[in-house]
Amino acid sequence: MIDEKNKKGMSEIISTVLIILMTLAAAVLIYSFVVPLVRDNLQRGSECLDYQDYFSFVQDQNIGSKNYALNCQSGNSYVFVVKAKGNMNSEKISGFLVSFSDKNGLTKTVQVKNGDKIGKLRMLDNAQEISIPKSGDSYTYVYDYNSSLDYAEIYPIISSGRVCETANDKIEFIECSADINLGEIK
Amino acid sequence: MRLNDKRGLSPIIASVLLILIVMVLAALIFIWAKGFVNEKVMKNKEVIENSCPQINIKVEAYAGEVHISNNGAIPIYGLEIMKKSLGSSSGSGVLPFDSTVVSGETGNIEFPSNIIEGDSITVLPVILGESGTNKKSYTCSDKGIDLVVGA
């Protein structure tokens, strides 16, 4: 028969120290694993919020005494002007995606990043590389495509490579006026 | 084993410990979550965007300089000059005045080297606000004034 008074086990101090050590180990585990996981997911979830409206289309531009209606079509060339919102950190943006569509809803998307070689999408000023407007700037692009396009929407691409899913702006192409020189169609 | 001999933390110590732990946890979560919230730039105790509509400036561009007179209540810290063309419109970045142009005063800034007579430009006023303890400039994009550079 076991003597109740002589029962032995861990002392209270040892068990308390063990509990504290286990708590500390759990805290370190949570800090090193769970916190970065949550932080990364939160950042990924919110990185587009500030830049959703970063790019927009410029409808018309006053140069000197002339007013040019932009975002227009001439033959198989489509002109659009992209403006980047002011007072923003441009380094967080690596490019944009333009989604062209016709009246039947058929779409064609073009993704561009700084330094891309010109192809069907080119700069109106005949630059050899594609440039993305920095905060406050606006650049004019020409898209050569041998089919009818009616609308365009623009989506920012974050430096992480993620394409933000909400379009800030949508334009409908109009006929270009004769004074807009589109250069040679490639 | 007698029940009366059982020892442990007194209720007061336990309560104090619990409160301290909660406070430390709350502080940690606050510091961690603060990184996700952007601090707004403020001016006159409101977001700086609200100061832009109150700007009233007259701008002229000639003799290699942009001249402004401030007819509004908001001090103008500097200007951003955009050279406009059909192909691209690029900004100069913030060009600060030697000293902030307050109401009723005039100021002038030299053109960036890429702007010459006859160019179409947009002049944007830049004001100064506070973000935490730092001063931060803010370009009022909606208050741009279009003009052609004169001789």
Condensed summary:
Chain A is α+β, with helices and mostly antiparallel strands and 186 residues long.
Largest sheet of chain B: 5 strands, antiparallel
Our estimate of the beta-strand percent of chain A is: 25-35%
Reported CATH architecture of the largest domain in chain A: Sandwich
Question: Any low-confidence stretches of chain B, pLDDT <50, length ≥5?
Answer: none
Q: What is the CATH topology of the largest domain in chain A?
A: Immunoglobulin-like
Using only C-alpha atoms, the radius of gyration of chain B works out to 28 Å
Notable features of this structure?
heterodimer; A: alpha+beta; Immunoglobulin-like; B: 151 residues; alpha+beta; 44% strand
List the helices and strands and how they pair.
The complex is a heterodimer of chains A (186) and B (151).
Chain A lengths: L11 H35 L8 E3 L2 E4 L2 E4 L2 E3 L2 E8 L8 E9 L5 E7 L7 E3 L14 E7 L6 E8 L10 E4 L1 E2 L11
Parallel strand pairs in A: 4-12
Antiparallel strand pairs in A: 1-5, 2-3, 4-5, 5-9, 6-7, 6-10, 8-9, 10-11
Chain B lengths: L10 H24 L7 E2 L2 E2 L9 E6 L2 E6 L5 E9 L3 E14 L4 E5 L9 E12 L2 E6 L5 E4 L3
Antiparallel strand pairs in B: 1-2, 3-4, 4-7, 5-6, 5-8, 8-9, 8-10
